[in-house]
Design goal:
Helices cover 49% and strands 20% of the residues. It has 337 residues and is α+β, with helices and mostly antiparallel strands. Strands 1, 2, 3, 4, 5 and 11 form a six-stranded mixed β-sheet that branches. Strands 6, 7, 8, 9 and 10 form a five-stranded antiparallel β-sheet that branches. The longest helix is centred in the N-terminal third of the chain and has 32 residues.
């Protein structure tokens, strides 16, 4: 792998000279007089003939950085952790570029109908209606558009691995049985919770008095709930989530489908009760359990296809990463610091 390190390389908009629409790469310390001095973006890596911009890296890293800053690390520890994660994310984006280049070269195409079919398979495997799936995505802060892009990306990579890796991936019946026996928590009877929520963003409402922070508003809402107010009506009136018009309805979830802090808040609740105010990536939230249903365990025959698909995808990902490492060795990669 040919990796070169450069420092302070910037992209600047070409503003005059009659060449509108062209971008040039300039070294720090040299700015041609016909260019604006405003830096609008920076190249952080060049992968063969493709570039990765600073905005690409920052956008990919933003959710992770927010989580790190909320953990209460010291300034030095926070900086070191963010730096480590930035390096990991940059490597991941480089891998994405290499894969995308191979997908383009191979002419691999996935149309909208194939994506629709894959999503239907996901819904079927999880016993989700379309509403259930959208609620699950909303609870995870993922838009349907982004979900479809991720499905398309995974399908293209599956095809790429099948095309490029000579040895076939074979999942045997004994592999399926072993996984089933090793994961009783996934196939034993489990409770599912019908959940509603009220959400307010973190921070302050700049149009309200300073004492009326969003957390303060949530405390007032929590008190009204304690005094007997309807959770559904309070969600419709005060929640700032997209499901507010539906009374904060999220749908049925097993505990292992929830983030740890939400799981801890929901697990002790009985039907008709609500949680304390908790801080999540989506904002301050109060959760309400409307109903709890227990679904029966699943026999091997019911889940064999699902397990086989999971094992296949795991094997694909492992083969794919091994193949990406091979691509890296032959790629011309320039990391720009």
């Amino acid at each position: 792998m040919k990796i070169k390190i450069f420092r302070c390389v910037f992209m600047k908009k070409l503003c005059v000279c009659g060449l509108s629409g062209i971008t040039l790469i300039l070294c720090a310390g040299f700015v041609h007089p016909c260019f604006s001095a405003e830096v609008v973006d920076r190249i952080v890596a060049i992968v063969n003939d493709d570039i990765i911009r600073l905005t690409d890296l920052n956008n990919a890293l933003a959710p992770v950085e927010d989580q790190i800053r909320k953990k209460g690390f010291s300034a030095d520890m926070q900086q070191a952790e963010i730096y480590r994660l930035r390096q990991e994310m940059l490597n991941s984006l480089i891998d994405d570029k290499l894969a995308d280049q191979e997908i383009k070269t191979a002419g691999i195409f996935v149309d909208e109908q194939e994506i629709d079919k894959a999503i239907e398979q996901v819904k079927s495997a999880n016993y989700y209606s379309d509403e259930d799936l959208r609620s699950a995505l909303t609870a995870s802060g993922i838009s349907m558009s982004d979900y479809r892009k991720e499905i398309k990306k995974q399908m293209q990579r599956n095809q790429l691995v099948n095309l490029k890796i000579k040895s076939k991936i074979i999942i045997t019946d004994s592999d399926v049985l072993k996984y089933y026996n090793d994961h009783p928590e996934s196939y034993a009877p489990q409770k599912k919770y019908m959940i509603r929520n009220i959400v307010m963003p973190l921070g302050f409402d700049i149009e309200a008095p300073s004492t009326q922070s969003n957390f303060g508003k949530m405390e007032s809402i929590h008190q009204q709930l304690s005094d007997g107010a309807s959770f559904e009506k309070m969600a419709m009136e005060y929640s700032e989530a997209v499901n507010a018009s539906d009374g904060g309805k999220l749908g049925f979830f097993a505990l292992d489908e929830l983030a740890e802090n939400i799981k801890s808040a929901v697990s002790p609740l009985e039907p008709g009760s609500f949680s304390s105010i908790i801080e999540t990536d989506q904002g301050f939230q109060i959760f309400f359990v409307e109903d709890i249903q227990e679904s029966g365990g699943k026999e091997l025959s019911e889940v064999a296809d699902e397990i086989r698909q999971k094992l296949y995808e795991d094997a694909v990902n492992k083969k794919f990463q091994s193949w990406i490492e091979t691509l890296r060795k032959d790629a011309d990669i320039k990391i720009i610091q």
